[in-house]
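A.,

Following up on our hallway conversation. Structure tokens first:
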């Protein structure tokens, strides 16, 4: 998974971005933590770390978006998420 998606011959057919890897690994870490809290996993070494160490999984941080958010036209029916009809 670190380098990308491999086909049955072991050839790289698709790249996985760091943000996507981080998304999947954060979900795995959440499941791991839940299993630990329910005592399904006992005497297991914690496989995740914020620091790169041997045999531990580090969760990458993806690139941030550099684009500004697009301008949205104002809708005069909505003020702070509440419809004007309910304000009168």
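Then the amino acids I'd put at each of the 88 positions:
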């Amino acid at each position: 998974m670190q380098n990308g998606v491999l086909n049955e011959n072991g050839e790289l057919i698709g790249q996985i971005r760091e943000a996507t890897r981080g998304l999947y690994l954060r979900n795995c870490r959440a499941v791991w933590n839940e299993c630990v809290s329910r005592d399904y996993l006992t005497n297991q070494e914690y496989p995740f770390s914020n620091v790169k160490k041997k045999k531990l999984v580090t969760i990458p941080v993806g690139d941030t978006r550099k684009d500004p958010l697009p301008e949205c036209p104002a809708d005069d029916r909505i003020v702070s998420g509440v419809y004007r009809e309910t304000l009168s």
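The chain has a mean pLDDT of 77. Curious whether your intuition agrees with the design.

B.
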